[in-house]
Amino acid sequence: MSNNPYYKQHWIDIEPERHEAYDQILAFHPAMEPLLKPLELAPGLRVLDVGSGPGHTAMELARRVAPSGKVTGVDINADFVERSNRRAREAGVPAEFVRSGFPPLNFPDRSFDRVFCKNVLEYVDSAADTVAEMARVAGAGAVVVATDSDWDMMALETGAGTADLNERVLGAAKSIALKEPKIGRRLYGLFREAGLTDVKVEVMAAADTLGRSTPMLKASFARYARDSGRVMEQEVAQWLANINRAIERGTFLLVLPQFIVRGVKR
Question: For the whole model, what pTM was predicted?
Answer without folding.
Answer: 0.94
